[in-house]
Amino acid sequence: MPNEIHPEIYPPSPEVMAAAYIKSHDEMIHKASEDPEGFWADRAREFEWFKPWDKVLDDSNKPFFKWFVGGRTNIAYNCLDRHVKTWRRNKLALIWEGEKGEVRTFSYHALNREVCKFSNVLRSMGVKKGDRVTIYMGRVPELPIAMLACAKVGAVHSVVYGGFSVEALHGRIDDSQSNVVITCDGSWMNGKIVELKNIVDEALKRCATIEHVIVVKRTGQQVQMESGRDYWYDDLMGLPVARALAGGNRSETEVMDAEDPLFLLYTSGTTGKPKAILHTHGGYMVGVATTLQWAFDLKEEDRWWCTADPGWITGHSYIVYGPMLLGATSFMYEGAPTFPYPNRWWSMIEKYGINVFYTAPTAIRGLMRFGEAWPNRHDLSALRLLGTVGEPINPEAWRWYHRVIGKGKCPIIDTWWQTETGMFMITPLPATPLKPGSATKPFPGIIADIYDEAGKPVAPGEEGFLVLKNPWPAMMRTIYNDPDRYVQQYWSKYPGVYFTGDSARKDADGYIWVIGRVDDVIKVSGYRLGTAEVESALVSHPAVAEAAAIGLHHEIKGHAIHTYVMLKAGYEPSEALAEELKAHVGHEMGPIAKPEKITFVKQLPKTRSGKIMRRVLKARAQGLPEGDLTTLEE
């Protein structure tokens, strides 16, 4: 409970302090700052390396930093191979529940067997080190199996969120030049089938590089299977080639350089073209495992549940790689949190004895609407830590989460990080005193600050630009095929300093409060969507001449998309046309991108150089001062 001196500071309980892996956040920050390279080298020694590194950090070609230079390893080896050589071979690695209630479990031994078999399948199709493989699936166990199999053979996986549309999938396959797609016939969400295979078929009509499509049978509905290109996953896994190597179900793990690519993950940018963030085997491995272990204090006996989708960075880092690097037991659920009733999550926490639970503020706010009776029907006493991710959590939702779900005893680990950072950057540890709405302090080894426009630190309480002042192991290495964009977007505003694109303030205690994006990216339910992508989708409709998109506060989603549309001659505004345009955006980009509101306008505010002034639209929509209009065209 909050202390009496300051009702909005929640100190850790004696029980939490006794169990905490790190007893003092500040002491560890100080220790890491004295010798950052030594700090990360100590963390890296907890994993197995085929060859030790020659140098911890190479910063000779900034900002293209390299970590554990000369080291040889493989993240899949550290997720699976090293565990099956110990007592953990019989420990549960993954517990999965489908939306219809089916349950599947995998020990580390069983999961390793499936990954080895599927890696042999990939090799039989010619997939080799450096090849790109696109994964477009629902939340089923075969998704992490596919990711780990790619890593095992040295292929670079590109996971595309299973809610994205034909256009989004096509663009990502085309950019990555993948030669294999792994998908499902469909997936279940809110009791309905998402037609994944049909979307893949449509996308591949314009993709020349794809040679093979592997299809997991999940929903059982009829799908088109193209002879010579499409194969059922189960059929392939039953072939002798899947058990090709001596000993049955084994597969050699590719020896990778620490800086070899592990995966591409596309995130929205302001130019309209999604950018492929590239992460590598060595540094990413060290970063995600260390942050998960320290921030969430995972114990051998814990059951960990991160509710994200593996199609986003949270799923990569903290559903698949982080937990398995630690040898943890991870829970994964296929469907929606309110299907068939709003107690679905709470019932599973009770059923499986979940100890540590990590979700998004948008989900918390959505479940708050249904009241306290639903969670109070269930025994949530196994929970000892809670977490949030995706956007800043508002204090009201924080308090509800702490009181109703955590019963006043569970610290809330409010994490700030990005697809680009790969790992938690600002986060409390269990021993950190908490302030609702603040991500507290940087993780040990990370130096963060708040700068003004001129690149000087702002005074406590003032808003400015959140920056990161030193490199870290799990950082993105580049934007795939676009290194100039990497430099320009992240390292040019303040030379030598990483520009996060978020605004924030720091209080007198050094706690950081992240406010939101400063660029033209909208976060809807924790998902980043570029305004230019939404605008491009609108303009592709025959009635639309120009469009502008902004994000406005939404009680449940965090932000909602509001759009302003100029129609072509011969078209008139109407409610029917507005609904048609919303549906069109949903078709082009996926349901997550459907605008909340469409406003028809005769002109858009632009600078003299023709750039739409979205901040003016946002100010007008909120009834706020419009600020400096000197660059506005007449």
Brief overview, please?
The protein is of the alpha/beta class and 634 residues long. The chain is globular, with a radius of gyration of 24 Å.
What do you see in this structure?
The chain has 634 residues and is an alpha/beta fold. Helix content is 30%, strand content 23%. It is built from 19 helices and 30 strands. The protein has an eight-stranded mixed sheet with strand order 12-11-8-6-7-14-15-23, sandwiched between helices. A seven-stranded mixed sheet has the order 5-4-17-16-18-19-20, with helices on both faces. Helix 15 links the parallel strand 19 and strand 20. The chain starts with 13 loop residues before the first helix and ends in a 12-residue tail after the last helix. The N terminus is likely disordered.
Key structural traits:
634 residues; alpha/beta; eight-stranded mixed sheet; seven-stranded mixed sheet; disordered N terminus
Distance between the termini: 57 Å
Derived from helix and strand composition plus strand pairing, the structural class reads alpha/beta
Q: Compute the number of helices.
A: 19
Side-by-side strand order of the widest sheet: 12-11-8-6-7-14-15-23
Outline the biggest β-sheet: 8 strands, mixed
Q: What share of the residues lie within helices?
A: 25-40%
Arithmetic mean of pLDDT: 91
Uncertain runs are 1-6
Strand % is 15-25%
Radius of gyration: 24 Å
**Total DSSP E strands:** 30
- Shape field: globular
Chart the SSEs and their pairings.
Elements: H1 14-19, H2 25-34, H3 36-44, E1 55-58, E2 66-69, E3 72-73, H4 75-84, E4 92-97, E5 103-107, H5 108-124, E6 132-136, H6 142-153, E7 156-159, H7 166-176, E8 180-184, E9 187-189, E10 192-194, H8 196-204, E11 212-216, E12 230-232, H9 233-237, E13 256-257, E14 261-267, E15 275-280, H10 281-296, E16 303-306, H11 313-325, E17 329-333, H12 344-352, E18 356-359, H13 361-368, H14 373-376, E19 385-388, H15 395-405, E20 412-414, E21 448-451, E22 463-468, E23 478-479, H16 483-491, E24 498-506, E25 512-517, E26 521-524, E27 527-530, H17 531-539, E28 544-554, E29 558-567, H18 575-589, E30 597-600, H19 614-622
Parallel strand pairs: 4-17, 6-7, 6-8, 7-14, 8-11, 11-12, 16-17, 16-18, 18-19, 19-20, 29-30
Antiparallel strand pairs: 1-2, 3-13, 4-5, 9-10, 14-15, 15-23, 21-22, 22-24, 24-25, 26-27, 28-29
Helix pairs in contact: 2-3, 4-5, 4-6, 4-11, 5-6, 7-8, 10-11, 13-15, 17-18
